[in-house]
């Protein structure tokens, strides 16, 4: 792009990115809505806006995720702040939220382990004011992002955030529902060096093993933190449902099943503590 002033229409025409990415970046730079980009297509970017847009174009062309460039991502109807300290919330994970909303008893306590941006816990708390929701993560940087999101999206004191390596800091606390989307990508999986995953926190993506280490721990230790008949609901990879169900069976869960996402893939498995 040249040093002369560019209109929104010219920015779209001259962008090396696809139309969707270009418009998201333009909305971020100008503060316009998607409709305003169309109705005000002759608007000329200021020098500062044009410079910011050019930098963002270059970073996106180099592969950086849109959610990190704009600092936000929509999830379950809410706009979450994101940063390289946390995984980018994905539509697949909305299934885990829907299941938690369905299975959590009225007025009960719910725990989200490995909360990251807080997307799962905050989406649940936003829909179910009757629940006492706790969200834990080992990363202080992730907890800072979750705290910021909670302050923006929830009434004060709605969500309790806890620095914990899985169950470590929970003591004797017990919950009616425990949910988690833990790291499940197998070490050295080629996808870790492709696309958006290259920029996301590695320890939130992979267990540096066979992809099941977190499930072994979460399931084997759940009996110390679930109430009787409490539900454990776990998101997992596209080919891990059977392995997760087997682990649940080995640790005396009942009603074990897997649920499919919109693509028909078994994306969440869980069961009730006997």
Descriptive report:
This protein is α/β, with parallel strands linked by helices. It has 2 domains: 8-62, Helicase, Ruva Protein, domain 3, CATH 1.10.8.10; 83-273, 3-Layer(aba) Sandwich (Rossmann fold). 36% of the residues lie in helices and 20% in strands. The chain has helices at 8-14, 19-30, 34-39, 47-61, 66-70, 94-103, 119-127, 140-153, 202-205, 213-220, 241-250; strands at residues 72-75, 78-81, 109-113, 132-137, 159-163, 175-180, 226-235, 253-260, 266-273. A 7-stranded mixed sheet has the order 5-4-3-6-7-9-8, sandwiched between helices. The protein has a two-stranded antiparallel ribbon with strand order 1-2. It is elongated and about 70 Å long. The N and C termini lie far apart (63 Å). Residues 93-187 form the Methyltransferase small domain. Its EC number is 2.1.1.297. Substrate binds at residues 181-184.
β-sheet strand percentage: 15-25%
Q: Helix coverage percent of residues?
A: 25-40%
* C-alpha Rg (nearest Å): 21 Å
Find the count of extended strands (DSSP E, 2+ residues).
9
The largest beta-sheet arranges its strands as 5-4-3-6-7-9-8
**Largest β-sheet summary:** 7 strands, mixed
Number of helices: 11
Low-confidence stretches: none
In the residues, how many domains can be counted?
2
Fill in the CATH topology of the largest domain: Rossmann fold
What would the principal axes of the Cα set say about the shape? elongated
Calculate the terminal CA-CA distance, rounded to whole Å. 63 Å
- CATH architecture assignment of the largest domain: 3-Layer(aba) Sandwich
Structural classification: alpha/beta
Tell me which oligomeric state these chains represent: single chain
Query: What is the chain-wise order of helices and strands?
Result: HHHHHEEHEHEHEEHHEHEE
CATH level-4 homologous superfamily of the largest domain = Vaccinia Virus protein VP39
Output mean pLDDT. 96
Query: Could you name the CATH class of the largest domain?
Result: Alpha Beta
């Amino acid at each position: 792009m040249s040093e002369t002033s560019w209109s929104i229409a010219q920015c779209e025409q001259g962008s090396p990115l696809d139309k969707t990415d270009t418009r998201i970046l333009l909305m971020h730079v100008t503060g316009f809505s998607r409709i305003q980009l169309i109705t005000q297509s002759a608007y000329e970017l200021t020098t500062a806006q044009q410079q910011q847009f050019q930098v963002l174009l270059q970073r996106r062309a180099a592969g950086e995720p849109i959610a990190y460039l704009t600092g936000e991502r929509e999830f379950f109807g809410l706009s979450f702040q994101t940063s390289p300290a946390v995984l980018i919330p994905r539509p697949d994970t909305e299934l885990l939220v829907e299941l938690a909303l369905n299975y959590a008893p009225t007025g009960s306590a719910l725990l989200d382990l490995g909360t990251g941006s807080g997307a799962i816990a905050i989406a649940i708390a936003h829909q179910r004011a009757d629940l006492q929701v706790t969200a834990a993560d080992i990363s202080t940087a992730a907890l800072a992002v979750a705290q910021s999101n909670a302050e923006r999206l929830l009434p004060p004191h709605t969500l309790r955030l806890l620095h914990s390596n899985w169950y470590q800091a929970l003591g004797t606390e017990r919950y009616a529902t425990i949910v988690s989307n833990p790291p499940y990508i197998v070490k050295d999986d080629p996808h870790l060096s492709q696309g958006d995953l290259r920029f996301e926190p590695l320890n939130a993506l992979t267990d540096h093993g066979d992809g099941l280490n977190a499930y072994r721990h979460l399931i084997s230790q759940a009996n110390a933190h679930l109430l009787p008949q409490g539900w454990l609901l776990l998101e997992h990879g596209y080919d891990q449902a059977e392995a997760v169900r087997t682990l649940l069976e080995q640790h005396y869960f009942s009603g074990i099943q897997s649920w499919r996402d919109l693509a028909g893939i078994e994306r969440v498995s869980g069961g009730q503590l006997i």
